[in-house]
Specification:
single chain, mainly beta, Complement Module, domain 1, 3-stranded antiparallel beta sheet, 24 strands, 0% helix, 35% strand, elongated, vWF_C/EGF_Fibrillin
């Protein structure tokens, strides 16, 4: 490959090939790796042989001296020493569980419960005869009973009711409102009542749920000199004309305020 090598020299080519120069010829062979450990780490970058400085266990690299538990056996403890992984599992005595919820890692068979002439498996939930409001559970040979929890009600006490066959109280529906009560002036209007709150262009109605809905009226002036009638929302163009602060009826004539020689007439169009 264009490089001069001394007789007897040895070097490594890409692909982990070990080569030597003998009698003017290059002899190559695959590098032979001696791995003295059971869980070696892959060869580092640029290297050919795995290393025993650390361990590779279940696809996870572990440092030298690392203590860990396998993913499928939480109670087994393993340690990485010189590329070898050693694991220890706890010794479990035979028999049933010493308690309803054992804290150790031993597998056991929970005890069944004998209650009122019946046998229940561990973890079984059941109700007492004729009492659906009490729930019992079997835990390691012992039965624990408690009342069925009820939700917190937001209605006052006088609006709560307990129906037949129910364990928890419920809220009664509030009575339908008889009308709309206005706090500002203390007036109560019946459902369907329409009134004006003070502005003739605004009308309000008392709805069936006790709420008040108001809406304004948009006026469109159709004449240049409309007459505004007190208490009426929109100006009236059919009653006559307003001129210089005075009101004239339809077809009424009157002198002009700008020229005494001119007469004006009110025409409703």
């Amino acid at each position: 490959r264009g490089i001069s090598q001394e007789p007897g020299s040895r070097w490594t080519e890409p692909g982990c090939q070990s080569c030597t120069c003998q009698g003017g010829q290059v002899l190559c062979d695959t590098v032979s790796c001696s791995v003295p450990c059971s869980h070696p780490l892959p060869a580092p970058a640029g290297g050919c042989c795995p290393t025993c400085t650390g361990c590779l266990h279940e696809g996870v690299a572990r440092a030298e001296g690392d203590v860990f538990s396998p993913s499928d056996r939480n109670c087994t403890v393993c340690v990485c020493l010189a590329g070898n992984v050693s694991c220890l599992s706890p010794e479990c005595p035979p028999g049933s569980c010493p308690s309803p919820s054992p804290a150790d890692c031993c597998s056991c068979t929970p005890e069944k419960c004998n209650f009122r002439g019946r046998t229940y498996a561990h973890g079984a939930r059941f109700s007492l005869d004729g009492d659906d409001c009490t729930t019992c559970v079997c835990q390691g040979g012992e039965v624990e009973c408690s009342f069925t929890p009820c939700p917190v009600l937001e209605c006052p006490q006088h609006q709560r009711q307990l129906g037949p066959g129910q364990c928890c109280s419920t809220c009664r529906d509030p009575p339908a409102p008889a009308g709309c009560f206005l706090d500002d002036n203390g007036v109560e209007f019946p459902v369907g009542q329409i009134w004006s709150p003070g502005d003739p262009c605004e009308l309000c109605i008392c709805q069936a749920d006790g709420s008040v809905s108001c809406q304004r009226t948009d006026c469109v002036e159709t004449c240049p000199y409309p007459i505004r009638i007190p208490g009426q929302c929109c100006p009236d163009c059919s009653a006559g004309c307003t001129y210089m602060g005075r009101i004239f009826s339809n077809n009424e004539t009157f002198p002009s305020a700008l020229d005494p020689c001119l007469n004006c007439i009110c025409l409703v169009r």
